[in-house]
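Running log. JK asked me to keep both predictions on one page so they can be read side by side. First protein, sequence followed by its tokens:
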Amino acid sequence: MKLIKGVKILLVDDEPHILQFLEMGLVNEGYEVKTASDGIAAIETAEKFAPHVIILDVMMPELDGFEVCKRIKETSEHIAVIMLTAKDEVRDRVKGLTLGADDYLVKPFSFDELLARIGARLRNQFPDLLGEVVHGPFRIDDRRKEIIYMDAPLTLSPTEYELLKFLVLNHGIVLSKPMILDRVWSYDFGGEENIVEVYIRSLRDKLNDKEHRLIRTLRGAGYRMDLL
């Protein structure tokens, strides 16, 4: 992803050394950063700072991350929330996502992974900030609703465009059929999950991905875009 100026990130954690480390790294990447060390301060700072992304720790004094996420999403749905948790438990992840979190990271995590997660959220929720985005052989221009692959524009239906964009922007991440349906077809889609297979097959044909090296199928898990 290109270095972006003007993107605002709020860091929320009660561990000073984590705040300092992340703030230094993100400022170096070109982001505008504010910090908060507890839940109440996080909500107050979010109201004044209006961040694009909030990196939100779960375990904090005053208000925990779940409650902070819930309150922020009630008034600012457009803000992307990435939750940090020391517990690699499904119920914690499900609770955070149910309350409106857009992604999560389990401590300890690498800074490069955090950057990738932030980038994915910006590409999905604030494409106008990025304009044209390049990933491997793909160039996505969301303003023109165009995807260029290997320097050639692809002929895509609106749904194919949204599906391929979702796969590319989340490359390297396993995406389940329910997740794809929710993000591409919307939550109220009343059809069958098999529709995803039909569109994946069409994209593979248009990408000449006969050996499934680009769009990989992980049985029982979903699909993963691997950029060559």
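And the second, directly underneath as requested:
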Amino acid sequence: MKVLAAMSGGVDSAVAAARAAQAGHDVTGIHLALSRNPASYRSGARGCCTIEDSNDARRAADIIGIPFYVWDLSERFHEDVVEDFMDEYAAGRTPNPCLRCNEKIKFAAVLDRALALGFGAVATGHYAQLRTGEDGLIEMHRAIDHGKDQSYVLGVLDQHQLAHSLFPLGDTHKSAVRAEAAERGLLVADKPDSHDICFVADGDNAGWLREKLGDRAPNHGGAIVDDATGEELGRHTGTYGFTIGQRKGLRIGTPAPDGKPRFVLDIEPVSGTVTVGARERLAVDRLSGIKPRWCGTVPRRLEGTVQLRAHGGEHRAVVTTADDAVDIELLDPAFGIAPGQAAVIYDGTRVVGSATVSATVSATVAATQATT
């Protein structure tokens, strides 16, 4: 089969491409140029947007012995991922750009072009496993290495996309991947993993948003108020600098009466009000989801688990669906969940699908209402 291997310049995608070639596929490597000016997104060997990364990917392709090309998807990436990231934060939501990139770029724009060019699949270095279920559908499962599992950020893939995807590393631990890279003579064997958001060069999301949003933000400042008393505790320069559950960087001079730290409980982008309070007020036990993406058959009711952050734990949950709405009852309350985050739904190790969190119900508020 003709396989297009997406090569970021890191060790994982290089080994994935090598394995695909060793399995007998006719492999072509590509590197995605996601910025016309790579230094504006990322400097140093940290991600997927630098000239260094492109050169690392090209050298790996040469060692593997496969053709290599660079595809310029900078305009599509900026529109579908970067602009979406800014718009969501400006609206007081907390997006995950990695999911959006997988949905819109790697397994949409890239896959569409690959199929049009006669390729049968796109291979990436993501840590996830694909299996054929008893019903004949392609199932996506967590990787063997749970510490590196990336099924959460792949929870937006549908059956068509899964049927044309290859994840050669899903059955391997990361330490073994690095060892294999060294054995194959790949110079990226010891290259550090990428972290943070690839287009935020220094990892300072708030500073990056402040610079990029400018006058596009609905407000340039507002009050930070106490949830219990309504007292104004301070001022801020933009709601985009906050996210639900945030504790650090609030710059509140007045301590809480009990001496405990305060957390961001709510963000109102129109008025500019940021509400803070005790950690227990962050507990939620019910989520509403919109824009669902299903990996296979749409469940009407499922008792499974939900993951709410890329590196977060699982919460036991009862999931019900109706049309394009998803209701999630958390049997294990979660803390600090913000609208805009992705809720990825699992049945055991199998990824069922995902939805974007649109609203949350506080466990403490629900408990108070139930007793009054």
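Observation for JK regarding the second prediction: The mean pLDDT is 89.
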